[in-house]
């Protein structure tokens, strides 16, 4: 690790241009770039390093320093029965980018040497040299994600009958989450995961969302019929004073193609109204680039493209 946090601070600043795009809020043009970089990227990662939640693994290539920021994920590790890590990014001087592939190879040889491990990373398109280094050294491209966002103040659409999901809805929504498989999401596209386990993960996710993991889980409200569709959201109110912008996130959805055709658009629209009622000005969501129907729905509701990232993994 670096001798002092001051030196680590310098390494972050050397990669400021690329690291700005690691922020989930980098598309907010009304927020100064310095605030986005410092408050939602640099400060967040440094705090995790101070709290020993992120390990800094130094790699030296021809006396050039490369710092790999690795976080162990206990819940994922226990659930999928394999030690799971997230590579947040790599810090280095721009002049040393030609040695970056060698640094990635050395990191792999060191990190995966003595134990079974799984490591994934989510890299913005703008960090092109790190993307090239990963793809050229054995990391697999698993998924390409997009960020779409909506200006809630401008949202206008017809209204639909919806309600908040409750514990009685859990069996139905678990089934919907499992049945409406997306073969292109990380858990289904990465061959390290068992397909049934990946289906079960989404079922678990919606159950925990209803129990409090999400701020709100919305379902259709039609008497006499099961919901057969849901959409979860997090308000993200803790970040509102940091950014000076009130923004929330739509997280996970599943809609039965047999009984709820057309309800995805309805849920997105109604969630936009709900988040607006909570005080939010913007909302964003992360569709896979392969999900053309979902992207079309966003665009018909006035959503705009904000960002593109690429998920790689190695095990």
Describe this structure in a few short sentences.
By secondary structure, the chain is α+β, with helices and mostly antiparallel strands.
Low-confidence stretches: none
Which percent band covers the strand fraction?
Answer: 25-35%
Radius of gyration: 21 Å
**Number of helical regions:** 12
- Average the pLDDT over all residues and give the rounded result: 94
Task: Explain this structure.
This protein is of the alpha+beta class and 315 residues long. 38% of the residues lie in helices and 26% in strands. It contains 12 helices and 11 strands. Helix 5 packs across helix 6 (128-135) and helix 7 packs antiparallel against helix 9 (195-213). The longest helix is centred in the middle third of the chain and has 19 residues, at 195-213. It is globular, with a radius of gyration of 21 Å. The two termini are 24 Å apart. The mean pLDDT is 94.
């Amino acid at each position: 690790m670096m001798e002092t946090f001051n030196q680590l601070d310098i390494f972050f600043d050397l990669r400021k241009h690329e690291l700005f795009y690691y922020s989930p809020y980098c598309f907010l043009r009304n927020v100064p770039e310095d605030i986005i970089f410092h408050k939602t990227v640099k400060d967040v990662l440094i705090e995790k390093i101070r709290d020993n939640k992120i390990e800094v693994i130094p790699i030296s290539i021809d006396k050039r320093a490369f710092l790999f920021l690795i976080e162990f994920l206990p819940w994922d590790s226990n659930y999928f029965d394999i030690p799971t890590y997230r590579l947040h990014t790599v810090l280095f001087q721009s002049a040393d980018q030609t040695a970056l592939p060698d640094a990635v190879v050395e990191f792999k040889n060191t990190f995966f040497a003595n134990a079974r491990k799984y490591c994934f990373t989510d890299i913005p398109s703008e960090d092109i040299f790190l993307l090239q280094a990963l793809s050229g050294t054995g990391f697999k491209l698993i998924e390409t994600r997009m960020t779409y966002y909506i200006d809630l103040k401008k949202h206008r659409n017809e209204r639909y009958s919806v309600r908040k999901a409750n514990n009685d809805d859990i069996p139905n929504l678990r089934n919907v989450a499992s049945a409406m498989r997306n073969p292109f999401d990380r858990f289904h596209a990465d061959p390290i995961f068992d397909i049934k386990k990946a289906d079960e993960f989404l079922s678990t996710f919606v159950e925990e969302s209803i129990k409090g993991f999400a701020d709100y889980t919305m379902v259709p409200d039609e008497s006499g019929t099961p919901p057969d569709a849901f959409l979860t959201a997090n308000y993200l109110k803790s970040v509102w004073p940091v950014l000076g912008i009130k923004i929330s996130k739509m997280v996970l959805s599943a809609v039965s193609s047999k009984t709820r055709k057309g309800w995805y658009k309805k849920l997105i629209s109604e969630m936009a109204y709900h988040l607006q009622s909570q005080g939010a000005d913007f909302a964003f969501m992360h569709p896979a680039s392969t999900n053309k129907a979902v992207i079309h729905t966003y665009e018909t509701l006035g959503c705009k493209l904000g960002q593109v990232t690429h998920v790689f993994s190695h095990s």
